[in-house]
Specification:
homodimer; 220 residues; alpha/beta; Arc Repressor Mutant, subunit A; Rossmann fold; 2 domains; two-stranded antiparallel ribbon; 8 helices; 11 strands; globular
Chain lengths: 220, 220
């Protein structure tokens, strides 16, 4: 059995969890490749991610690829195929809205981690930050949002404003034509269906850890 | 019908998603209280969180509380009851492991947001950071981990080290007796069952947003 690529399959709607795992597989496959590993079996990928080999094979079949019995998957080929699914050819531009401590650390964190996603602008309502450069990224006034989003063709916003400003900032982003928001602010947002919203609720995650630690301790 | 509190129910195992929502309800209830609102209906809570009133009532019944038909829930009472579920009486101590940009911003972000969770230490392997104070938190050498965790009774770790250091750091934390880990490092971790692990995968979240933006754009 030879490695097979059936790219026509990739147009299918992939499950949300498969998208997440593909992103995670790729990150570890890149590390494997950097270490000179050229082939990998599903059970090896499974072990890295603490899931079953069946799950791995299912996800990879969903993107129209299968490995060989003898050698497994070609690492380079698999990375490229996942890239075809997740990335756009010319890359996407993102902006960080709220250039506080968290916003600045995320600019640094995301820069360079993904070649196909460029952080091209920051926005803040603090006049002292406007026209400053943070980790190589120009900070604009929030009042320039619509103008800069259009000029820089920004389609993704990383929202790190305080809770009280989140609703207004999200409305401005939607008005400016943003297509996707990664929301770090501790405020539930309401966006129209054509805007994809992903929320990272760090306070709740920490409270969950605390709850389970408390429960484990038998204090309940 | 009067408000009822049946605290014996709270010992039950609550669903994971209910824990998350209780944390989110509380955050918004605190804002309501700050604005002087003393009673709230399930449909009002539902609207804030973009879920159904039935879901809200079910979650709140699970913690043994019910409101009155006329006035809804007593905001203060509900906040206290959620606190009984999520918090320990004397609070829990947490440490940030990896005092880079992200670690430092999280120290600032989490400090003061939750009175029942105190960040009491930072750890880093960079000698230049050791014995410095970041946002009021003392940074120790990672070699002092076991000693400081015991002395400061740290039960929760917020892990923000680079991917390459994550596995070793997690092993050290488990050895030191940590009970819960909130992992921000882009590396899947393996911990024993008595340690609760919550992972926040920011890169994957951003890649998911990019995938859906691409899909929406019809580029597929």
């Amino acid at each position: 059995m030879n490695a097979k690529i059936n790219q026509t399959l990739k147009a299918a709607n992939l499950p949300d969890k498969t998208i997440e795992r593909l992103s995670q597989y790729r990150r570890n496959l890149l590390q494997c490749l950097a270490k000179g590993k050229q082939h990998i079996f599903s059970h090896e990928i499974a072990q890295i991610h603490h899931i079953t080999p069946v799950q791995v094979r299912r996800d990879i079949m969903l993107i129209g690829y299968s490995g060989t019995l003898r050698k497994g998957y070609d690492v380079k080929e698999l990375i490229d195929l996942i890239g075809n699914i997740l990335d756009t050819r010319e890359g996407l531009n993102a902006a960080v809205v709220g250039v506080g401590n968290l916003g600045r650390s995320l600019i640094g964190y995301f820069s360079g981690k993904r070649s196909k996603l460029n952080i091209v602008a920051g926005f803040d309502n603090n006049p002292e930050k406007v026209d400053k450069i943070y980790a190589g990224v120009h900070c604009y006034s929030i009042d320039q949002l619509a103008e800069v989003v259009e000029r820089e063709r920004v389609s993704i916003a990383i929202l790190t404003v305080p809770a009280d400003n989140a609703t207004e900032a999200a409305e401005r982003l939607v008005m400016a034509g943003i297509k996707g928001i990664l929301n770090f602010s501790p405020k539930p947002l309401n966006v129209p269906p054509h805007v994809y919203l992903e929320e990272i609720d760090m306070i709740t995650s920490l409270e969950k850890v605390a709850y389970y630690v408390k429960k484990q301790g038998g204090e309940e």
